[in-house]
Design brief:
single chain, alpha+beta, 2 domains, three-stranded antiparallel sheet, globular
Length: 340
């Protein structure tokens, strides 16, 4: 019987968990995540509430300009103040003052909570009750922000934010909206009731967090911003090769989130999987990845459910069916060495 191995979690894993799986009742968590990474990247270990208010409110104002609905609540005095700033009704000093008074009421307390429980590490400590109110950034955050991957984390946070606000825009789950993939642009988009396409986010960043920044096949680190190491460049790949759809072997759309993963250039390139059938172990990994993504409530979740099945057993049967077709059609299987 195969044994399950304990997976050690890194600081980045915990940060991604906050962004990907924390409760989504407002977009403040995303703005705070982006703000603390930016402050930490400057080497600062403390931020007053005034210091924090500038990047925090700037991020929210920017997204209010993209999508006005930024919370599940019907009203928000704080967001109304930021809307007023965008319309030129208040100046920057009033915006900062409003953010200090209203913007951090719940988000600082709730930031480290995932699935109703606090994660075991902290990225900042709350010092709002000290003589100089603010937050103290931890060594874990400072070291993470100094790493080359901090730009990837910022883009992942931005992608997650865009997906969540898309769900809010279309009143998920009351109205089912699914996300499609544009292979040429490597981006996700939705189509509204008037058949107009609306771009959501870059697919590479949306997928990266759910793979912990690793290649789906070999488990090596992939980079989305720094492409100096070509073999470690993160690229979107179809687990079941697109040739199956082009040749009419399958009657399902392979250009969908359930079949898309992030792979390094070595595995995705000329010496990699190409048009071979994925090893059955990768099909199992794909099922687990999809189930993991479904735990995160946004349109990618709905897209996977509507196309592969309402319950986990149906989704597993769906993937097994795809595997049987791929194996019979492509004959040759492929797998590579996997780092532990």
């Amino acid at each position: 019987m195969a044994l399950f191995n304990e997976i050690p979690l890194t600081d980045k894993d915990y940060f991604r968990a906050v962004v990907l799986y924390g409760a989504n009742v407002a977009s403040y968590k995303f703005a705070l995540a982006e703000s603390i990474i930016g402050i930490a990247a400057e080497g600062k270990d403390f931020a007053t509430l005034t210091d924090l208010a500038l990047p925090f409110s700037d991020a929210l104002c920017r997204h209010l300009g993209i999508q006005d609905k930024q919370t599940t609540s019907r009203t928000s005095r704080f967001l109304d103040m930021l809307r007023g700033f965008n319309l030129g009704k208040i100046d920057i000093d009033e915006k900062i003052d409003s953010t200090v008074r209203l913007g951090f009421v719940n988000v600082i307390d709730a930031f480290h909570v995932v699935h109703a429980k606090e994660i075991p590490i902290r990225f900042f400590h709350d010092e709002r009750k000290s003589p100089q109110p603010g937050i103290r950034l931890t060594d874990e955050l400072l070291e993470m922000a100094a790493d080359i991957e901090n730009k990837d984390l910022l883009k992942e946070t931005e992608s997650r934010w865009r997906l969540v606000e898309t769900a809010w825009r279309y009143n998920m789950p009351r109205r089912l909206i699914t996300v499609d993939y544009d292979k040429g642009l490597e981006s996700f988009f939705v189509t509204d009731s008037k058949e107009r396409r609306h771009s959501v986010t870059n697919a590479r960043y949306a997928l990266n967090g759910y793979q912990r920044g690793k290649c789906f096949y070999c488990n090596r680190q992939v980079h989305l911003e720094d492409w100096r190491l070509l073999e470690q460049r993160g690229e979107v790949d179809h687990v079941f090769p697109h040739i199956l759809q082009r040749n009419g072997e399958v009657d399902v759309d392979l250009d969908q989130a359930w079949n898309l993963v992030l792979a390094c250039n070595k595995c995705n390139g000329s010496g990699g999987k190409r048009d071979h059938c994925p090893d059955i172990s990768y099909v199992e990994d794909l099922h687990h990845r999809n189930e993991n993504l479904i735990m995160s409530h946004h349109p990618l979740r709905e897209s996977i459910i509507v196309r592969t099945g309402k319950v986990s057993s149906d989704r597993k049967t769906f993937l097994n069916g795809c595997y049987k077709i791929a194996k019979r059609s492509l004959i040759h299987g492929w797998r590579t060495d996997r780092l532990q």
